[in-house]
């Protein structure tokens, strides 16, 4: 089975582990997947540039036979191209096995979300966890620079903030609150020119009130202060280039001066090795976010979900997920002058997030009213919360 993994780093990581589980279900040999070089980031990294390939193969040898390349004897063999149906269960793959009776090589052009979140055999679910949290280790180059965690810890505890206030996210979601007309128009043009983004005409105000927009840097600052974090708190910014740059990030820094990024913690020489390789840089952010004392994502994207799931697997480490819909109402009251920063706002915000800090809970099911296959799409991601299949009640995995 050959695979082309699609998407950004964490979409590829979870997709690869889905493919490992699928290979086990259909009893196929898996060829090391090809990584996406056509996504927004245009990263040319190969599998071994990002992951420890020998460790990956060795760690899973008891579950799935994995090879680095397609054997020479099969290079010229005809290949069947198969798009596996999204959110499929074990019975679907039992039927798909028939493909290998007529074809020696089957190519899978997309790897993401090929497996259901629920209803799979327990051994398959645990294999997905074993793949993601143990076998799919980052390359030595990336792991070595993970020493940035030690540099952060030399100042004490730190928050890892995944601030998704980036151009692609704002354009995709149509979120323009607080931006100039020129900036909003720039994002609209980007959305219209990106062919695989299906939704073009978006009402920014509705998006914000529905809680679909990432928090702005200024909103994050207000939120963190209301949650009781002092000005001296160290915050690691796990993010790509912030839209608007210093114009917007300065508002957050005015609240929390100890706001740092990899560019401030690592030397130019250390970072030069990752130049023009966004996925490798994202892997570095991932490591620092997983190891943080508190992880806070400003939007529920692939990295946020993957980090939260990993932290749950490691013992339900503290992850605060902002209630964006509820917070918008409070931010608007502040803007109108009907509420001020202080004890009252703090009480409202802390109460709102009492049960949003990563404590043990089972995965959420599908949204009420959803039907058919769309219902499966609305379930909470297995990789966002692998409880209870991969996590003991004590928090040990």
From TrEMBL:
GO MF terms held by the record: glycosyltransferase activity
Gene Ontology CC entries for this record: membrane
A Gene Ontology BP annotation from the UniProt entry: fucose metabolic process
Compartmental location: Membrane
Pfam families (UniProt xref): O-FucT
This protein's record includes keyword Transmembrane: yes
Pathway annotation from the record: Glycan metabolism
Coiled coil: none
Membrane topology type: Single-pass type II membrane protein
Predominant subcellular localization, coarse grouping: membrane
Keyword vocabulary terms for this entry: Carbohydrate metabolism, Fucose metabolism, Glycoprotein, Glycosyltransferase, Membrane, Signal-anchor, Transferase, Transmembrane, Transmembrane helix
Gene3D superfamilies cross-referenced by the UniProt entry: 3.40.50.11350
Highest taxon of the lineage: Eukaryota
PANTHER family listed in its UniProt record: O-FUCOSYLTRANSFERASE 38 (PTHR31741:SF15), OS02G0726500 PROTEIN-RELATED (PTHR31741)
Family indicated by similarity: Belongs to the glycosyltransferase GT106 family.
Full protein name: O-fucosyltransferase family protein
